[in-house]
Sequence to fold (283 residues):
Amino acid sequence: MTNSSLPETEPSLAETDPSLPEVRAQRATKGAETDLPDEFAGFDDLPTVANRATSHAPSAPRFDGDVSELPDRACWALQNLLARRYVSGDRQPQLWSWVSEYQDVLRIRLSELDLRLRLVDELQVAFVEQAGYDSRWGRRILKRETVHTYDAILALHLAKYIRAARDEDALITREEIHELFAGVTNTIDRDLALFDKRIERAIDKMEELEFLRKQRDDADTFTVSPVISAVMTASVITDLQRQFEQFIGSGDTGEEPPEGAADEPAQPDDAENAYGDDEGDDW
Fold:
């Protein structure tokens, strides 16, 4: 005997039209709840793959007897920091990425040699400088590079020039470079031909150091590399400015300087960190 007073039950979603969105959503949810444990079981037993991008372990030996504790890329970055004037993201993007990635371990290795790693991230420039302290046992790793007085004067002017240019392309002509030495003309060098020759040698030196880059379509126009802003720190510029003023002042008497005196290597107080350090073939 049936109880006619019992309410009739409404059909479930499963019994309704399966094309309805509600039905599809409910079935998908139920399927996920029942299938997930079995479907994903065993993933922990799968073999793992080494992530070389974050590994600081060395790879296979590069040569017979290689006992390096650093990965190849860190070793190559270290070698280039010691052999180049600087590493530039503009000129050597791969090297710059390695220096940036391994900078912590590179600082340790360089400190063991009394060297500092300098990174200027906004310019993507990295270079090494000698640390100075008193010890009869310490030895200078970075060799001095011959930088004459006119080279230093031009480097000083170029550093100020590019700072004034800010974010704009810093272009300078050969004529404008000669004009930078207007304060020296007729007070230090009375022989204008020799004077111009010394300026040209300073330009060649700045090209060699890659602070000046000659334009392809105009040999008398140069781009001033922003790298000079990284290498020529504020303390270096201050020292060179003082030397420049002393150099100008030495000509107040109007006497002719000894032959070649203007080309004697300049000796700033902060010689290690100014323009005197050579890093293999470095500034």
Q: What stands out?
A: The first helix runs from residue 21 to 39.
